[in-house]
TrEMBL record:
CDD domains associated with the record: TrHb1_N (cd00454)
Protein name as annotated: Hemoglobin
Record has GTP-binding as a keyword: no
Positions of heme binding: 53, 77
Iron-sulfur as UniProt keyword: no
Species for this entry: Billgrantia gudaonensis
Lineage: Bacteria, Pseudomonadati, Pseudomonadota, Gammaproteobacteria, Oceanospirillales
Any Pfam family the entry gives: Bac_globin
InterPro entries xref list: Globin-like_sf, Globin/Proto, Globin_bac-like_CS, Hemoglobin_trunc
GO molecular function: heme binding; metal ion binding; oxygen binding
Alphabetized UniProt keyword annotations: Heme, Iron, Metal-binding, Transport
Gene Ontology biological process terms in this record: oxygen transport
């Protein structure tokens, strides 16, 4: 097992920024969830804010220096009624992007564990 932090294994600030860009793009291409993401492109300020929150969330949650100042998972997803298919589509996109970026299997597994740990805070709220 590596002694590097998850943040370091994800490539630090630049690696996380690249991952977030590609994950958001994957979500916009995914027919299961794209309707939730495509409208953000119409508001560039909101679009960049969304990606900034995702970068900070991933950085802070992986041991990096960023401080996440966005809403909690339940607050951010309240009223969205996210079901199993959408949740799995998001998770699959994240894992596929990690794979395309050459992230090692152990780190991908750790990210999957984090995604599943948030499931109850995101689904059907």
């Amino acid at each position: 097992m590596s002694s590097a932090t998850l943040y370091e294994r994800l490539g630090g600030e630049s690696g996380i920024a690249a991952l977030v860009d590609d994950i958001v793009e994957a979500h916009m291409q995914n027919p299961t969830i794209q309707a939730r993401y495509l409208p953000t492109r119409d508001d560039p300020v909101h679009f960049e804010e969304l990606k900034g929150h995702l970068r900070d969330f991933l950085s802070a949650g992986s041991g990096g220096p960023a401080e996440y100042r966005g809403r909690s998972m339940p607050e951010a997803h309240r009223g969205m009624n996210i079901g199993e298919a959408e949740y799995m589509a998001v998770t699959d996109d994240i894992l596929a992007v990690l794979d395309r970026h050459g992230v090692d299997p152990q780190t991908r597994q750790e990210m999957l564990g984090i995604a599943y740990s948030l499931k109850d805070e995101i689904m059907h709220l």
